[in-house]
Structure of ABC transporter-like protein:
Amino acid sequence: MKGSNATAASTFSEPLRVRQLSHGFESPDGSAVTIFDRLDFSVGHGEIVSIVGRSGAGKSTLFNLISGLLTPQSGVISVGQRADGEAGRIAYMLQKDLMMPWRTVLQNALLGIELYRKVQPDDVASARQMLARYGLGAVADAYPHSLSGGMRQRVALTRTLLVDPTLVLLDEPFSALDYETRLALEDDIIALSARSGTSVVLVTHDIEEAIAMSDRVILLGGRPARIEDQIEIELTTHGPRTAVSAREAPEFRGYHARIWNGLRGQPTSRSAEAAQSSIPAGAVHD
Ligand SMILES: Nc1ncnc2c1ncn2[C@@H]1O[C@H](COP(=O)(O)OP(=O)(O)OP(=O)(O)O)[C@@H](O)[C@H]1O
């Protein structure tokens, strides 16, 4: 399937499959700029994949293409079916929480469902349950202005997850939050994926966040953008992986060095020697 019908439900097993994706824009001087030229990748069930790349690499464009906000000039983007044969569903969460101030927290959480069908009593019960799981039970009937940034972002996360997506796209969702809140939300996503098998694609400038949360990191670079490196993340943690235990894993610095060097356009080292590189801890690439 190509062009206008390029985002489609499919019987492929992967929740997301991108094949031979090409897209570009017209630059201000009228010349054509190719952002993607036959890009290929896929995302597995319950997999968390981070996409990192320099500013302008094409990360947001890729999300807009996957979510259907943009129509690819050519190529195929396939969203796999659910196990029960129903069509898969993508949910897209942005950096801005986009709360409607005149709606309560509960009503904001239900907005995602409302956009495609009538809200049922069961939905309200699920919304209250999920808000409670994210520590928002007591403020479900309050208005967003009384919430902190982290709480608002959790409401946005609830709204994203209530539509029961097979694939969640997160575009720098935590970048405006303080470090502690950020780690807590990273934990929420890691736990969600482990619990429900939801697949997640995350765009971030934060290398630590990418490593801590992901099963795989894709390094996007060049023009047209291509996958410059693809790193399977395997971390030795005591117990299940969390945002903190991931950062304490012995392999963490090696991965950090490889991605950091990749972003700077240096040859990526696939060996542990990369860990020797002098990288500022907590560096955020931009
Ligand atoms: N609608 C558009 N018209 C023309 N050019 C565009 C349009 N949207 C994006 N671009 C260009 O495409 C390129 C990729 O943009 P995109 O926003 O996808 O990058 P990004 O990797 O998400 O950047 P950042 O990390 O800064 O958010 C940029 O050069 C941008 O200027």
Summary: Residues 25, 35, 53, 55-61 surround adenosine-5'-triphosphate (CB under 6 Å). Residues 179-196 form the longest helix (18 residues). The chain has a mean pLDDT of 84. The chain has two domains: 3-89+167-276, 96-164.
